[in-house]
Amino acid sequence: MARLSDLTESTAVEGAISEFRRLGRHAFLSQYGFRESTDYFILDDGDMIDSKPVAAAALARQHPNAAQPGPKYFERGTSRTVRALEALGFTVVTRAQLHPPLPGAQYRSRTEVQAAFGGDNVAGPIRFPGEDVVNLFSDENGPYTDDPPSLSETFGYRGQGSSGPQRVDFGANPLIEDARESGSPVRFWHRPKGGVFTFECWVVVESRAWVMGIGKDKKQRVEINWRLRPVPGPNPAEWPEAARLAHSVTPLTREEVAGAAEVTPAPTYDDLVRRVEELQQTAEPHAVSRTAYQRQYAARRAVLIRSDGQCESKRCTGMPPEPNRRGQPILDVDHIVELSQGGEDHPLNMVALCPNCHAAKTRGKHAKRWEKELSRIAAAAHDQSRFAAIEGSGA
Ligand SMILES: [Zn+2]
Description:
Keywords: Endonuclease, Hydrolase, Nuclease. The protein is an alpha+beta fold.
């Protein structure tokens, strides 16, 4: 039977390309029993021509008397096909190489993304054929509880694996871990409920943490939470220094987190405040970003517990009637005195605000007054929550 290694005449390939052009794509593909390619194409006069069917037709032209392998042989031999054609002087490209997706690109589904750029038809992160870039897909329809994305601040992205403890070496997680370790640019795609997949922005995988979550089997387990930081483009030379350095932080091991979680499965306000204060003291010089993230995470969680689902402002005119996508009250946790102004990552300097109060505090006419009032409110709520926690525990 003829094999790809027997394809040695470029005129046979040229003949097959002419036949492709004469018959048209559809008729040519059905002639040789192939489906439309999604990955590798011969670039001919600016046109993209399905590489495997052309290789099959060329092989038949060069060896008309030999038995011919069927489409399955070529489908399993992508790199062999590409090498054989390139050795004969043809340019083989992928759609992602020729027309990589730009920020703002939109597709209704993963199937449409695959039709546009090729690659495996999977739900998780992928690389498109011909590219080293990792593409992350965050879908509000689930199954993972990713943070809503941000174009300005780091946000969370959950690992792969629906039940049981997540593993860095499972599924597409190694792709993301590679991107974190190398500090490579990553495309972040997002689909809101009822919307379409949009290539929202370039990100760098800044860090990885283990967090407690609920698996598909409804059991508590450890999950991977990657922190994604939006960056201005795919070229690291144009990134702020912090983004270029961030990925070098060593993540916590799962044992460190799981061990802590077994002791305190559901931390109270008091636990979290203590955690914040502990982290404030134990900040290691080489783990600045990790410690800061953990501290802020603990502090935000504490403030949300303290707020009991209500805006903490005394001037509040009412919470939004709609819950957020996770079915929780829509609340922003805000630093009363901004970090950049010397404010601390501590519940005493933080409040839970509804979007209206948050806007009034940050963009309103009486920002100073809000700051003063909210500081008093936070201090009082803090004392009360700590007192309640101590009473509740019977101490
Ligand atoms: Zn409010």
